[in-house]
Amino acid sequence: MRHYIIILFACACAVACTQKKPSADEMGQMMLTEARAAYERGEYAAARDSIMSLRTNYPTALAARREAILLLDSVEFQLAQDDTLKSEFYRRKLQHDLEKLKIEN
Fold this sequence. Notes:
By secondary structure, the chain is an all-alpha fold. Helix content is 87%, strand content 0%.
């Protein structure tokens, strides 16, 4: 019985050692998929962070990096648009508040 356990353990170790480690391209594509999912959820900062991590950790994943450039442009556009909308909102709010103060005084 003891021999069977040792043989089973040896087989399990052999199987574990032969499993293929994901390549840089595969890992890059997985990170790109994560970035796209974050973008779709409107989590633009998280998408940008994933793209930057992809670029840093997998510099040889060229196909994923090329696609990530386009996604990063979309992320930056959305962030800029959000900032523009925020600044417009606060500009209008400030104007409204100033007018309200003039009326009350």
